[in-house]
Give the backbone structure.
Amino acid sequence: MKVLLIDDEEDIRSIGKLSLEAVGNFQATLAASAAEGIKSALSDRPDLILMDMMMPGVDGLAALLEIRRTPALERVPVVFLTAKAQRSDVARYLEMGAAGVICKPFDPMTLPLEIQRVLAGVAKE
Amino acid sequence: MRVARIPHNEQARLRALEQYAILDTASETSFDAITTLAARILERPIAMVSIVDADRQWCKSCFGMQLRQTPRDISFCSHVVADEGPLIVGDAAADERFSDNPLVLGGPRLRSYAGMPLVTTDGFVLGTLAAIDREPRAVTDKQLGALELLAGQTVALLDLRRQTRLLAGQSDALAHRELQLRAILDTAVDAIITIDKSGLIEAVNPAVERLFGYSPPELIGQNVSILMPSPHRERHDGYLSAYERTGQRRVIGVGREVLARRKDGSSFPADLAVSQLELGEGRRFTGVIRDLSERRRIEQLKDDFVSTVSHELRTPLTSLRGSLGLVASGVTGELPPQARAHIQMALSNAKRLGRLISDVLDLEKIRSGRLDSRRNVVRLSTLIEQAIAVNDAFAASYQIRLELDGDLPDVDVVVDEDRLNQVLSNLIANAVTFSPADWPVEVSVRVGAARVRVSVRDYGPGVPEQFRARIFQRFAQADSSNRRSKAGTGLGLSISKSLIEGMNGQIGFEAAEGGGTRFFIELPWLPPVALSEASGAALALVCEPDLDVAHSLRAVVEQAALSVVHVAPTEDRARELLAKFAYGLVVLDLELAQGSASSLISGIRSNPATRAVPIVVVSAGGAQTPDMAGLLVIDILPQRIDVPRLLEAARTACVLTRTERCRALHIESDGEVRQTLSTALAEVCQLTGVEDVAHALPVLSGQHFDLVLLDLESLESAGPALLGKLGEAQVILFSAAASAQALASRMSRALAEAHNDEALLRSIVALARRGRA
C-alpha cells in the first residue's frame, strides 16, 4: 500500500518514513509542502495521504479542499497528523472530509496500526 | 483671718471647671450685663462673677472695680465654694473670719459682701456671683432672691458657652471627616455611582468620567441605563421595578461581571458591585464599577503564551520521541544492552514530558473555562470496563492485577466520556504506581440514592498525614525524592478534581480498612431507559440538564398522574427518546444544552409524529430547589410574519385545545402586522389584536383564549402580571434574539421573574388530564 506523507518538517518526514516502511509494510512517498504533495499524488496515486495541518503557505485544510476538488484524488482518504487536535478541531476536520486525525506527538511504533484502523473505518462506510 | 477649707470634691470640681474653659478669657458683654444688673438691684457699687481656681479667684466680670484676680486664701468667694451655699457678711470689720483680711484692711477696703454660689447641673460650685460694698450693709430677702436668679442665669450662660464650644469642635471634626471621605471618593480608581430608586443618577465620582467619558453634569439626573449596552440598556428600568415588586435580588449585594458602555458607544468588561442604602427620603443604590479590560488583556496574553509555548514544545518533542521510539524498538538496528537501557530512559522521559505538556494545557483550559467538554448520557458500566481494559497492560508492567470488586450496576451518568476516562485512568495509574508488586488494585461501584460512587482501592502505604490536605493541589507530590512519584506530573489529581466537578461530581479519598487507600468519585445518576421496549403507559419526557432539578420536576409530573417519566439531560438524548417513544407531554428546561431548547422545540413541531405534543417550557435556573414557571409553548419563531409556519402552529393549537377554530390574542404594536396576520390566519383562528401588554391584561381577564401570540420583549417587560393571566393558553413566541443561547437566557429570565411553581403544576396537571381524555 502506498502512503504519501506531507509535512514541512524534515525530522517528521524521516521518522514517518521509517515508521511507515520499517514498522508497517507501507511504501512511503514524501512531500515537504501541500503543493508538492498534490503534484506527487497526481503522478503517484497513493492509497492514503497523511498530512500535517500547520504548514507555511497552503495549510492542511486548504490542501484538503484542493484534494477534494481534484477529480483524480477525490476518493483518496486524507488523515491529518497534527498537534492541533482539540476535540472541536477534530470534529471540524472530519466535517470537512478528513478520514481521520492522528495526534502529534505520535508513536512511530503504532502509527501504521492507527492508519490501518482509520482505513478499516473508511471501508466500513 | 480664717482661710476657707478646700471642698472634699476639689479634684472633680477642678476637672468640671476645666470643661468650661472660662479662665483667663476676655470679658463678655453678657456676663458684664449680669454684674451690672446685680449691682443695681442690690444697690452696691461693686458686683463680680468670680471663678475659684486651684489657688486663685479669677473674675470673669467685675462691675465698679478694677480687679482681675486675687489669691484664693484671701478671697470671700472661696468660703462660698467651701460651704456650697450663699455667704452674707454685713460688716467684715466685725466678722472674725474677715476682720484682718488684706482686702478689708487695705486695697479695696471691703466691708460688706453678699455672694451666691454658681452651681453646675452636676452639683459643682465653680465660683460666685457677688455684690460688694465699702460700707457695712444688710441685705433684704428680695435682693437675695434676685441675686439667686441672676446666679442661675450666670450658670446658664456658662453652660451655653461650653455647648457652643463643643458643637464647634464637633462640626470641625465632621468637616474634616467629610473632607476625608470626599478625598477617598475623588481619588478612587473605581467609578462610584449613586442612583435613586427609579434609576436616575444622583452622584458620580471623578473616576466615572475617566472610565465612561461623560462629565458629571452630563450624567446627573440621567437614567443610569445610558452606561449599559443593549439589551440591559432597554431593560434596566424593568430590573428595578421587578426588584421593587418582588424583592428578588440579582446584583445587589453580590459582585457581577458586566459589560459597561462608554460615551463613544464602545463597551468594556467591568466588575459591578451594587449596594442598597435606605436613607431618609427613600431607597438608593450605589454601584462600584471596576474596569476589567486590562486584566482581561493580560489573561489573554497569558493564555496565548501558554498555548503557543505548548505547541512549540510539542513540535520538537514529536521528533525526539519518534526517533527514540524507533531506535529503542530496534528498527534501526540492534543496540548494545547498555545503550538500549539509556535510550529506554530517554524515551520514558520524553513521554513524561509529553504528558506534562498535555497536563499544563489541560489545567490552563480548565482555569480559563475553555475546556471543550460535551456531556452525554452514558452507561457507567461500559466506561468502567473500558478504563480497566485500557490500563491493564500498564498495571501488568508493575506486576499489578486490576480487579473488579462486585457487580457493575445498571445506571446511566451524564458525563464527557473522554474526560471521565481520563479521571478513571488517572486514579488507576496512581493506585498502580503506589501498590506493592503482586497485590491487586480493586475497582468497585456503589449506587446511592442520588449519586453513584466509583472507588479505586490500592494496598499501598497510604497517603502521608502531612500530604492529605494538599493532595488535590497543583504540582502536589508527597515526596519528590520518591523514585516512583517521578512517573507522574503532580497535576493528575488536580485536573481530575476540576474535571469531575465540571460534571457535577465530587472526588475524594479515604484510608481503606485493611491498609491502602481508596480514591473515589461520585456522580449523579439516572435510571436507564430500556430503549428496546415501548411502554403502553402514559409517558412524559423531562428535558433537564441538572439531575437534581430533574428529580424535582419528575416528582411534579408524576403527581400530575403520568405514570412513567423519562429524563433527558442532553439534547441528543431528548432527540433519541423522542424518536423512540410517543410522549403525552414534554417538559423542557431552557437551560438544556446551552440554548438548544428552541431548536428542540422546532424539531418536535416539524416532525408529524410529535407535532401535537404539549410542551411546557420551564426555567429552573440550575437551582437546587427550582423556582419554576411554566409556559405552554407551541413554537418560537424568529420573525413576526412567517405565514406558513404560523398557520402550522395555529393548527397545532387547535389540535391541542380540541377546537375547530381557536380563539387567539395577538399582542403587537404595528397595526399593519396585526391586520396581515388576522387575514392570513382567519381560516384556523379568530384573532383579537391589541397593541401592547397594558391593553392585553384586561382583555385576558374578560375572555378565554386558546392561543396567545406575543414577542419575547413583551413577555420580559410584563413579567408575572402577564404570565399569571396566560393560564392554559398556548403561546407562540416571536423572538429576534441573535442566538439560541441568548434566546434561552432571556426566556429563562422572563420566566424566572414569574417565579410560580403553582402555575407550573396547574399547567402540567391540566395537560396530563387532557392528554388522557
Summary: Chain B has a mean pLDDT of 83. The two ends of chain B are 121 Å apart (CA to CA). Residues 141-187 of chain B form the longest helix (47 residues).
